[in-house]
Design goal:
With 123 residues, the chain is mainly β. Helix content is 3%, strand content 50%.
């Protein structure tokens, strides 16, 4: 089993920045071989792909809505995957989840999920 814990969420004004962190524990080797993704879900909306990163960290993928503003980075030494969010917009407001087991835009392809961390961007 793999345990994921998100942190770093909070309240920020539009144009501000937040850095989210996804910490993993347990037997992660097989799970992280397929990478880690960040997703978000706003009230009444479907869970949305945000970004993902491969096990090596050499490849990253972003939703068009966040490209150029968000950066996903793997820290192998700390066993974390961070999401640096800059130039935040009110439409970025959502509960953000990290997931492990794939590098995919479809949340159904991921095996492990954290509890989520709330990001609220005020206008």
């Amino acid at each position: 089993q793999v345990q994921l814990v998100e942190s770093g969420g909070g309240l920020v004004q539009a144009g501000g920045s937040l850095r989210l962190s996804c910490a993993a524990s347990g037997r992660t080797s097989s799970t992280y071989a397929l990478g880690v993704g960040w997703f978000r879900q706003a009230p009444g909306k479907d869970r949305e792909f945000v970004a993902s990163i491969t096990r090596s960290g050499s490849r990253t993928y972003y939703a068009d809505s966040v490209k150029g503003r968000f950066t996903i980075v793997r820290d192998n030494a700390k066993n974390t995957v961070d999401l640096q969010m800059n130039s935040l917009k009110p439409e970025d407001t959502a509960l953000y989840y990290c997931a492990a087991g794939a590098v995919d835009t479809n949340p159904r392809n991921y095996n492990y999920w954290g509890q989520g961390t709330q990001v609220t961007v005020s206008s």
